[in-house]
Amino acid sequence: MTGAAHPIIADSELDSYIACPSCDALLRDRDVGAGDIASCPRCHSVIEAPRPLAMTRIIMLAFAALILLFGALFFPFLELEAAGMVRRATLFDTVAVYSSGLNAPLSYGMAALIIVIPLVRFASLLYVLGPMALGWYPLRFAAPVFRYAETLRPWAMVEVFLVGVAVALVKVAGLAHVSLGPAFWAFSALVVVTVFKDNFMSRVTVWKTLDTRRRS
Ligand SMILES: [Zn+2]
Predict the structure, then answer these.
(1) Are 139 and 206 in the same domain?
(2) C-alpha 46 to ligand 1 mean position (Å)
C-alpha cells in the first residue's frame, strides 16, 4: 500500500461510536432510555440497559462482597478432625503457613488472585460508583481507576479457588473428618454476589456517566 494512511473514522466522529464489550463490533451510539435495552446486533450481548437504582444496587453488592471477603479471610475456613485431633484454619493462616520456602511464590500468588485482586476491584468500584450513585461529580482519577479495575477482572479468581477447594475436599474427606467453617460459606456467597454485581453493571453506562459528569 502506498500513500498516506487515512483513518476509517474521522476524529470528530469517534465520540459517536462505541465498541461492543464482548465482540468489539463498532456500533453507532444512541441514547438509551431507562428501562430500554440496547444489545449488540452481532453477538446479542446486552450493551446498555439503564435501570433506576442500578448504581445503588451495584454499590450495595460491592459493599456486601467486601464484608464477605473479610469474613472469608478471618473466620475458620475448614475444620479437620482425625484421630481425636482437631485443626481449624483460616485462609489467612494458610497463606501465612506457606509463606516461606519453595511454596512462598505459590502462596503469595494465591493470596493475590483470591484476596488482593478482588479486594482492589471491590474497593475501586466503590470509589468510582459511590459518588455517581449519590449524583455527585466523579472523584479524582475515577476514569483510570475504573479502567484498571476492569483490566483486573479476569484475574480475580474467587470462583476458580472454590472449585479447587471442592476437588481437594473430595480427596481429604477419605483421610479425615472435614467440616466447613463460616468462611467457606462466606466465600460461596461472595461468588454469587460477584456474579450478580457483574451482571448488573453496564460498563457503557458507567463510562457515559463518568463522561457527562466529568468536572470541567
Ligand atoms: Zn457484540
Answers:
(1) yes
(2) 8
The Å distance, Cα 38 to ligand 1 centre, comes to 11
Alpha carbon of 43 to ligand 1 centroid (Å) = 4
> What is the distance in A from the centroid of ligand 1 to the CA of 27?
9
Say whether both 64 and 39 belong to one domain. no
- Looking at the structure of the chain, the number of domains it has is 2
- In this structure, the answer to whether residues 62 and 162 fall within a common structural domain is yes
Residues 6+ apart with CB under 8 A from 83: none
Q: Distance between CA 88 and CA 133 in Å, rounded?
A: 41
Question: The domain containing residue 160 runs over which residues?
Answer: 53-212
Whole-structure pTM value: 0.72
pLDDT digits (tens, 9 = 90+) for 54-109: 778 888 888 898 899 888 888 888 888 877 888 888 888 878 877 788 888 888 88
Per-residue model confidence (pLDDT) at position 142:
83
Say if strands 78-82 and 85-89 run parallel, antiparallel, or are unpaired: antiparallel
